[in-house]
Design brief:
The structure holds 2 protein chains of 2 kinds. By secondary structure, chain A is an alpha/beta fold. Chain A folds into 2 domains: about 20-45 and about 300-415 and about 420-425, Aspartate Aminotransferase, domain 1 (Alpha-Beta Complex); about 55-295, Aspartate Aminotransferase, domain 2 (3-Layer(aba) Sandwich). Chain A is about 40% helix and about 15% strand. Chain A has helices spanning about 25-30, 55-70, 80-90, 110-120, 135-140, 160-170, 195-210, 230-235, 265-275, 280-295, 295-320, 350-355, 385-410, and strands at about 5, 40, 105, 125-130, 145-155, 155-160, 180-185, 210-215, 240-245, 255-260, 330, 335-340, 360, 365, 375-380. In chain A, the strands form 3 sheets. Chain A has an 8-stranded mixed beta sheet with strand order 3-10-9-8-7-4-5-6, with helices on both faces. Chain A has a 4-stranded antiparallel beta sheet with strand order 11-12-15-14, covered by helices on one side. In chain A, strands 2-13 form a two-stranded parallel ribbon. Chain A is globular. Chain B is an alpha+beta fold. Chain B folds into 3 domains: about 10-75, Rossmann fold, CATH 3.40.50; about 85-105 and about 175-305, ATP-grasp fold, B domain (D-amino Acid Aminotransferase, Chain A, domain 1, 2-Layer Sandwich), CATH 3.30.470.20; about 105-175, 2-Layer Sandwich (Dna Ligase, domain 1), CATH 3.30.1490. Chain B contains 12 helices and 10 strands. Chain B has helices at about 10-25, 40-45, 65-70, 80-85, 90-100, 110-115, 125-130, 155-165, 210, 225-245, 280-285, 290-305, and strands at about 105-110, 135-140, 150, 170-175, 180-185, 190-195, 195-200, 215-220, 250-255, 260-270. In chain B, a hairpin with a 4-residue loop joins strand 9 (about 250-255) and strand 10 (about 260-270). Chain B is globular, with a radius of gyration of 19 Å. The chains are: A alpha/beta, B alpha+beta. Chains A and B meet through strand 1, helix 1, helix 12 and helix 13 of A and helix 1, helix 6, helix 8, helix 9 and strand 8 of B. Strand 1 of chain A pairs antiparallel with strand 8 (about 215-220) of chain B.
């Protein structure tokens, strides 16, 4: 008698959306990057060492002294009102108008993404994203089973002509996309910022084709050069849903983000939030409020900008110094990431295995596109590694890349390449 | 467990599960994530026995076994030589073939032959001899990392490039159509083959995702084969185990081809112990739950060292 073995006895019980959540080879490879001997450009980690632990200790202490029962209690679903006033100020730094009552505080902007997907996407609905886009948004949306259209980016952000074409194509089939998702400033993963002109074009298209814009702006205050560009939300409060976060300017561990949106959308977000988790942590909201009320948070952002600018410069000079000329990369004016484009005959997921041998890690591009796609890109984070690690890490990575190019040349894969690499090992 | 190999995460999953079972069995367990401090730690704690839950390079290729031999610490599973032979698919396939065991025809290419001798020119010959589809795999790597099934000549260089990330030697092997089964063998002098486990991936082939995502592969145990074929397969597996001189445990992966002949693909000396791994599934079918399987492996190791 042969029996079918059921590894997971509840396999047939799961909702179909879980089939999108897979065990991934890349994720398992990245498990190796946690080792201390590996220089990792893989994470998107902010540099939390920038805050003095003593300051946090005092902040937490004063929260507990002043209102311990409140900090230990449930709170309102839309968030702790004094913190909302702080968030209004944070947005005002970028010229985004808002009122405390227009804000719902969420458990990180990531929860905001999930709640918005929950209230907006029916299975089979069409949505538009940048290609590449933020992997956390992609994964969150995918679980609600939409049809995803991607619009390519150039150095000015989303290519508007391409977006128009997509919209026309959909309209001709009688399809109206529900929303367009964009990380408008120093995008994750590319570091690219959407040009001002294109912001206006995007808004006018959203009116013409009647879709919502989700503007995700975690990096707007981490600008290292140039003049700020008005947020989409500040140009149009009627059509733009805005997601903010304290993760990159204060603490990712506090898990504090927020949504500000046209009133009816905000009402739905609030209902969804109620059923998801009742409220964001009363404790961390109070700690954050204390910090923003009593400490020089603008000074902290200035400090982070200085540290990150230095690290970005180090990464860009190291890339310039060590990388072969056929490789290109973005030069972000802010944020945390550099996006590297390899020749299309290179598979960066496979290359990660070699990179780990050289004790350096990155994130392969595939995760940032709906599959298939993104094989020949890699994302590098510069905010977390120290300056000397950045230099050494890029040096190691350049060896991996050169080996890759010469191997491709040996295998005759680099047909049509601008400059043909030599096949021999000696050329590395 | 753990370590720096590409199968670190799988190894940690195996290791944690085994450690829990060992504790439940009343042993004092010290989980060790292999790092440059390993020898110092081992010298300090002088364990009675090391349970090797390491996968991949250094864990399955005889490296850690050799080290434990030097330190005179008994360990579970085959010795350094059997491990080294098992992990090297070329050596083990050659040895199997010379002992009259069927294994799919293959050729080996190294990064050096491609770089220094222009081996790319030989690809059409290899392809002509093996035919399409063919399988490209790293010689020494587990969990099907870097393995690709290639069905047309144009896709061959890319598959080779991909496999070369996991080892500097690659194997081009004839694709054998048939039933994929794994035979787990337990024992020292007296060998007990466990029931065959048949794997049927829902799509594509038995790759990394299918192996470790519950629900992506269907398993049948015992395999859906007639008794004669199943017995023949188990017999072949026992011979492979003996030929490589394995002790305690091994798992032989093979494909039963359309003529009913077991074609041996490889022998594993540190079979996975995760929830979706084949050895625990086979043990379960033989009436041994996970804890009993772990207890058995410990007993076999003790026996090996006369402890």
């Amino acid at each position: 008698m042969c029996a079918k073995i059921t590894v997971d006895p509840f396999y047939d019980h799961y909702a179909s959306r879980t089939s999108q959540m897979l065990s991934s080879e890349v994720r398992d490879l990245l498990a190796v990057t946690a080792r201390p001997d590996i220089i990792s450009f893989a994470g998107g980690l902010p540099y939390t060492e920038a805050i003095d632990p003593e300051v946090m200790l005092e902040t937490v202490n004063s929260v507990l002294k002043e209102d311990c029962p409140g900090a230990l209690q449930y709170g309102p679903t839309d968030g702790y009102v004094p913190l909302k006033h702080d968030l209004v100020e944070v947005m005002a730094e970028e010229g985004i108008p808002s009122l405390p009552e227009d804000i719902v505080i969420t458990h990180g902007a990531q929860q905001g993404l999930d709640l918005l997907a929950k209230i907006l996407i029916n299975p089979g609905d069409h949505i538009i994203m940048e290609g590449p886009t933020y992997v956390g948004a992609l994964n969150s949306f995918v679980s609600y089973q939409p049809v995803i259209h991607t619009v390519p980016l150039d150095e000015g952000g989303m290519v508007v002509e391409s977006l128009e074409k997509t919209l026309e194509g959909l309209a001709s089939r009688g399809i109206r996309p529900k929303f367009l998702y964009t990380v408008s400033n120093f995008q994750n993963p590319t570091g690219i910022t959407l040009e001002e002109e294109r912001r206006h074009a995007l808004l006018s298209l959203s009116r013409e084709y009647n879709f919502i814009i989700l503007e995700d702006n975690p990096y707007g205050l981490l600008r290292y050069e140039g003049e700020p560009i008005p947020a989409l939300r500040s140009l149009d409060t009627e059509r733009v849903v805005y997601l903010g976060t304290l993760s990159k300017i204060f603490s990712a561990g506090m898990r504090i983000g927020w949504v500000t949106a046209p009133r009816p959308v905000l009402e739905k977000v609030l209902l969804a939030k109620q059923s998801a988790d009742l409220c964001t942590s009363s404790f961390t909201q109070r700690v954050a409020h204390r910090f923003f009320r009593e400490r020089d948070w603008r000074g902290l952002i200035r400090k982070l900008r200085t540290i990150y600018r230095e690290r970005r410069d180090a990464m860009l000079s190291a890339l310039e110094e060590f990388f072969p000329e056929e490789i290109t990369w973005t030069r972000p004016g802010g944020g945390l990431f550099v996006w590297v484009t390899l020749p299309d005959y290179i598979n960066s997921s496979d290359m990660l295995a070699s990179a780990l041998e050289y004790k350096v890690a990155f994130v392969p591009g595939t995760g940032f596109f709906p599959p298939p796609g993104g094989n020949n890109f890699i994302r590098l984070n510069f905010s977390y590694p120290e300056l000397d690690e950045i230099w050494e890490g890029i040096k190691r990575l350049s060896k991996v890349v050169k080996r890759e190019l010469s191997l491709a040349s040996c295998l005759g894969l680099d047909v049509g390449a601008v400059s043909k690499g030599s096949c021999e090992r000696g050329s590395i | 467990m753990g370590g720096s190999s590409l199968e670190r995460d799988i190894s940690l999953r195996s290791g944690r599960r085994v450690a829990r079972a060992l504790e439940e069995l009343g042993h004092e367990v010290i989980p060790l994530d292999v790092d440059p401090d390993l020898v110092r730690k081992l010298k300090g704690m002088r364990p009675d026995l090391a349970y090797i839950a390491l996968h991949g390079k250094f864990g399955e290729d005889g490296t850690v076994q050799g080290l434990l031999d030097i330190l005179e610490i008994p360990y579970t599973g085959p010795d350094a030589l059997s491990s080294a032979l098992g992990f090297d698919k070329v050596l083990s396939k050659e040895i199997f073939a010379r002992n009259g065991i069927s294994t799919p025809p293959f050729h080996v290419l190294t990064e050096d032959t491609l770089r220094e001798m222009g081996a790319v020119e030989a690809l059409p010959d290899v392809a002509h001899r093996l035919g399409f589809p063919l399988v490209v795999k790293p010689v020494a790597q587990g969990s099907a990392l870097g393995v690709k099934v290639v069905s047309e000549p144009e896709a061959l260089p890319r598959a080779i490039q991909s496999a070369l990330h996991y080892d500097h030697r690659i194997l081009l092997e004839k694709f054998v159509k048939g039933t994929e089964v794994a035979a787990s063998i337990l024992g020292n002098d007296e060998l007990e083959p466990l029931p065959l486990v048949e794997s049927v991936p829902k799509e594509g082939f038995f790759d990394f995702d299918s192996r470790y995502t519950p629900g992506k592969t269907e398993y049948y145990c015992p395999a859906r084969l007639d008794q004669e074929t199943a017995e023949r397969a188990l017999e072949v597996a026992v011979r492979c185990h003996l030929i490589l001189g394995c002790q305690n445990v091994s798992r032989v992966d093979m494909i039963i081809d359309e003529e009913g002949v077991p074609q041996v693909l490889e022998l594993n000396i540190s079979p996975g112990m995760t929830e979706t791994s084949l050895l625990p599934i086979a043990a379960e079918a033989a009436g041994m739950d996970f804890k009993e399987l772990v207890a058995r492996l410990i007993k076999l190791a003790m026996e090996k060292y006369d402890l």
